[in-house]
Structures are given as C-alpha cells and as structure tokens.
Predict the 3D structure of the following.
Amino acid sequence: MAVATLLKSEVPNYNVTLPVSGKDLSFRPYKVKEEKVLLLALQEGTENAILNGIKRLIESCVDGIEDAGELVMADLEFLFLNLRAKSAGQQMEPNMTCPITEKHIPVKIDIAKLELSNEAPENKIQLTENVGLSLTLPTLNIINKTSESNVLDFENDIEQFFNLISLCIVEIWSENEVFKAQEISSEDRNLFIESMTVEQFDKVLDFFKEAPKLQYKLKYKVP
C-alpha cells in the first residue's frame, strides 16, 4: 500500500443544505493541497484570485458540484464557510474596523450562527398586464462575465449594471409568447431593458436589492 493512500479512508463526510437554492449536498473537509490553492489566492490578494480559489476548493470537496460558478453568491459563500468550519474550525477572527473610530476591533465569529438577511425575492416580475420577465440571482459565472476583476461597482459603472441585468434574464414573456434568454441576442436584451419605464425598471432593481446576503449579528464596545 502506498503511503499517500493511508489517510484517504479516514476523511469524514458532512451534509449541508444551501440556504437559497435549497439543494442538499455532501462534502468533505479540504486537505492541505487544497488549502494551499486558497492560500496562494489570498497571497495574490485580488478579489478575482480569491473567488476563483474558493470556486476550485468547492469543486474539489463537494459531491455533485462540477462548476461552483453556477451557484448564486450567497450559496457559494455559505458552502465555503461550512467547508472552512469543518476543515479549520468553526471560529473565525476576521479583521474588522469600527466605522466610528476606524480602529481595529478584535472579534470572533461562530460560522454556525451566520444567517441569511432575507429570503430570495420573487423572480417573476410583471412589467405590464401582458409582459413580464423572470430573473436569476447573480452567480459567480455571471459576475465574471460582467467584470474582469469580479468586483461590481455599479455606482461608477452603470454599463456594468445593465450588463448584469441582461445576463440575469432567464426569460421574457408576452401574452402569446415566451422567449428564453439564450434565444435573445444580448443587443435585444439590452434594448428591452432600455425600453422600460422608470417604474418598471425600479421593479427590476428591487429584485437585486433584495438579493439575500449572509449576515452575522455582532455586539461590540467602541474602543
């Protein structure tokens, strides 16, 4: 028996339910070789490197996930943090800066107590009596197509936001027809968005504003 195989049978498996999609998955703790990939990404320090490092980690350790980039961001983050909890411990000590004093605050976070900010919003939006569209929450793959750096900066890049909305369209329907997103050119999707009234566009914006996020309720004393 090769020495390298001695520990393979000793690795436990855990079950987890993703909070947004509701999928039940099985995963194992990550190993040193996989942690090395993540550490190299952290060393590089860019958002792009870190997210892609997390993506590779999930694909290596989670059964049934061939492309972690297809996960919505809250599910991706939740799955990674559960991986981290079973691999390196449930407590985290992130760097936190007080928004009032701008001083560093030592905090400890229990990963098990992370929760969603809210439920996923209704993805079908009625624009007129006969016309509507359905949307998907942004996934890592969609964000990759929207921004080379994986950083969304809608305040300073309006075009980026319009591209994101276009890529998140699943289908558009009228009274008599349903158009799947893959059947519509990106140009036509953009023209459809630009033809909305402000009130209609606000309904679309609300969908993205209400996207669930992981949150942790923390009390601390201002230093």
